[in-house]
User: Fold these one by one.
Assistant:
Number 1:
Amino acid sequence: MIVEEARAQARRSTGDDVCLAALERAREMQVRHGYRRVGKPKPFVGKGAHREDPGVNLAIQTPGPGWGDVGSGPRPSWRDPRPIGETLGRFTAGAGWSRQLAVAKLRNSWEEIVGPTVAKHAVLEEFEDGALTILASSHSWAVNLRSLLPQVEKAIVDAIGEGIVESITVRNVQQVSWKHGRLSVPGRGPRDTYDQ
């Protein structure tokens, strides 16, 4: 119906409808070959859809009204490639893995953080809810580490950042006991150098 009205209007204004006839032939040929017209794709709004990033100007570049998002254009866009470290950093922060990764980094680089001598006599025992427990190899090393705690805390903050380790507890290894039964003889007992 619309085509017939357009053809009649073209006939009135120009005297022929050659252009409309050519357009109609082209459409019939498309139908014979199996082509069909599809609408403009709708923007994806499901899981994984693009979210706003306040750090970069993510204005969508369009060549004109009605074209939608067709490319990044000359300015920065969310479609531009980004460094993998930046992308992974945002992903781990979004997934809530930052603290676990920082603690894993602390465990892996413990020797570089506190030095080989201290690392040989003090190992990381556990980390839970911001509390880090260090296990010293002997009582004397536990006393030394407690006196060096400010330097150790600063080295940890420099390595993995602030606010991850909130408190540090230094423990020494459990000593064997020679006490058996109700009666025991007071004395010095086993020392740090006692070898089991």
Number 2:
Amino acid sequence: MKPFSLAEIAGVTGATLAGPGDLVFRGVAPLADAGPEEMSFVAGPRNAAAARTSRAGALIVAAVDLAGGRPALVHPNPAAAFAAALAHLHPEARPEPGRAPTAVVSPEARVGAGASIGPGAVVERGAVLGERCHLEANAFVGAGAELGDDVRLGPGAVVAAACRVGNRCRIAAGAVIGADGFGYVWDGSAHRRIPQIGIVVLEDDVDVGANACIDRAALTETRIGRGTKIDNLVQIGHNVVVGEHAIICGQTGIAGSARIGSGATLAGQVGVADRMVVGDRAIVTAQAGVMREVEPGAVVSGMPAEPHADFLRREAAADRLPELFDRVRALEARTDKEE
């Protein structure tokens, strides 16, 4: 990383300078690890103690008193400012346009200007790649699929036939967009497969983590709203609709036809039963199971998921059960003696 000045980062992040702008730093690091020549950030008041003991030469903070008297950049969202600084200091390498000799691109596909297609990648007939798309090794774009501008597919990522991916989406290694939905019907002798003839639509700026899977709809669309971020190893079933700017963490599973509201957060290993609704801005905490509708803005926990406060009361009561059992046994023993 080349050296940078505090003023330079202030300009990139829009933060207010609180200290000499010509101070030069040589790197960025977490609070606990940063040294005098490095910059760090304080996410909020809960990190104030760590900030006081940090050796960082400068901090990005929400309020100047959190900087402990050292040079600072003041920004209402220090984490976002730090992310902007990192993006500036570590710009993502852009591949050279062109296609590897081992890539297979149908003459009936349309490839936008500046696209880069890596070794072993396949683009089938009728597919459309927007400008500056980047397909890494062995990525696959099925027949008739459409990618917007600046889409990036990681190694082995799949966008299956007819699915649509918006501008600036990032699909990580091994992710599959548009696999068949899990649809079967019992005909009296066997589970008969129901053809899945719908598609998946990713709106603009969606990120899909490694080995995540988003199934195509049975008849219409499985849709992921603009700006939604999906972690590694997430499974999203057919016909699901996810609103804008949702966060779906690792190992979450969303069954068919569920609805996830805009701004909702599903923490790690959450399960959402089929056709359930999670309202806008709701939070489902880790390992919870959604078996009934979650109201907008609610916070739910547990299996089955219930309001977080109720969950905490139930867990506290459960913790006391061994003690209660001991008391019951003591009472029984005393009663037996008295008899």
Number 3:
Amino acid sequence: MAANAKTWWQKPLRVIQPNLQVRDTDRIDPERLAQQIKDMSGNTIVFNVGGIYAWYPTQVAYHTENEFLPKDFDLLEEVIRACHKRDIRFIARFDFSKAADYVYLQRPQWFARSRSGEPEIIGAKRPGDWSLLMSTCINGAYRGEAVAVPVLDEVLSRYAIDGIFFNAPGYVPCWCEGCRRKYRAAYGTELPDDKKEFAPDWASSCMRDNIDILYAFAKQKSPEVPMILYYNLYRDNIFDRAKTADMLCTEPQDILSLGHHHIPEFWKPALSIKLGRSLPDRPVPFGIVHSSPGMDWRHTGLPPAEYRFWLSQIPAHGGSIWHSLTGVPDTIGDKRILETVGAFNAQVEKVDPYMEGAEPLSEVALMWTADASAEGWADGLLGRQIPFDVLLAEQAVPERLARYKALIVPEGMKYTEEFAANLAGFVRQGGHVVAEGAPPERKELLSLFAISGEIYESEPLAASYLRFEGQGNPLQKGLEQTELIAHRGKVVYCRPDGAGCEVLATLVPPFSPLESVGAPPERASLPVSHTDLPLALLNRYGQGTVLYMPFSLSHLINEYKLGEHYQLLENAIGIGLGETRELRVTGYHGLQATLFAKGNNRLVHLVNGVGRRPLATAIPLHDIEVELRLPADAKVTQVRQIISGSPLEYRVEQDRLFLTVPRLDVWECLLVECD
């Protein structure tokens, strides 16, 4: 679609959401707020409008009006006017997930119930003069025709809003009579007492049904107003979400208040955006980043170095940034937040014109199974600067797989008949598959992996090793000085079966039980130093290859973070990529690299997350070498750093471009312009 044919919401957006507190209502000056958003380089605001509180004079029954609203003017109307005057788009935030206790007393059938029939009360122990809030049932009328739809109707009729966003639209377990009836009708059985026994699609279908009502009404009323809906990296059906929304958003929170032992993995923003981008022909997903280190500390900010690193992953992986703040700038006491948001948005504004319409240029796809195995592979790919996309099982079809040179299948992947056939077809056409763990004992898969039909899963092994086999072993690249690397965990005992199969690594069994590995050293010798039990088998199949690893490399990366396991991962994928990779970057651990294409131009994002998290300081990286494959017959006209504005010296050898980035603080985007 041509840039000038796009609607406003299909163009680059920099969203700022000041989450409002009702008791600060009199501190909201519409003109001043709009100018502050403008000064922070925001071009879109998300502002509270309806749901728990109406931020305007409402006529809808059971819609609780903010009692602190000004009496002499319409706050909502003035904020919208002030924003539009500055060319700032206004997205209306609604939250129908909760309602006040006076509503419950009059319409108790609209509220979620526990298994014992009690309503769910939010903040019952909150000190101060507050009414109680209670969770509403997603299948109840409050979130549909009784309140939510009339509120949408009222707002769309009165105010010139540009978009709609639903906060907390998801399912909350509920055992009300309405949910019990719906479950019985859908599944022919009673709603289980244990939520873990709910049908897998119950929560997602409830959310889809509710949002479908709201989306249908909004589109009928104001078809030009887009609707934004959440998706989740885990336990969600992104296809359901896409059916009932124009734009999607995700919220990778950097929650530090849970303590250092529970610090979120560094890759949450990257993976969340990649999953959203897996849906073709849609606006790029929003990545919502809270400014706080946890909701309990929402009145202070993330450490600035950590905050900048977390934010940078959103645009670097192809998402649109959405800042979530507690309060308006005048009520935010931690001014570091405002400084970080403003400085970051200014960087995004520089990059936006070049990234608009750019597409990821990834040679590797990772099957996203939303479990620890997929997380481990993602960790390794990011840690080794290998650009990749994530795919859901439904997306692993021949025409989609044809874009990639290599496909990673994590442990635990469900090998349906269709997926197994597509996998074999991908390899037959020249693709490279890396698979780990125990496969189902199906003839076509055993043939693809080149193993015999008798496979056995071991007990958890410790004090065991992986031994590289043979000379010039591609798995040993960079590890030539060692014949063994550490292994722990279960192994699938199997036998190679196939003329095209080569064993690249074998198991060295435990030399001792764990309780005696350290003492005495006189008994630390390996009782069996060499077996023929394979830990890596390379099979040539059709025009492609399969590297099957009958153990869990992702588990080793998740648990131990050893450099040799990351190297092994890169080598396993490198067999398929060969020497002509699209992108190579100096392998600093903690450095992320992504690659996008826009016509013949190339954009390389570099994000520096080096150091112990939460990052207290940004440790600069120096002399990062970048090697990039150029498009066929392309002539490089300029190479520069978009954010710093500095040109870069480069050289071209055949179809490869070489350059060195002298210094990287947090985020930079390299633009390679070609004729």
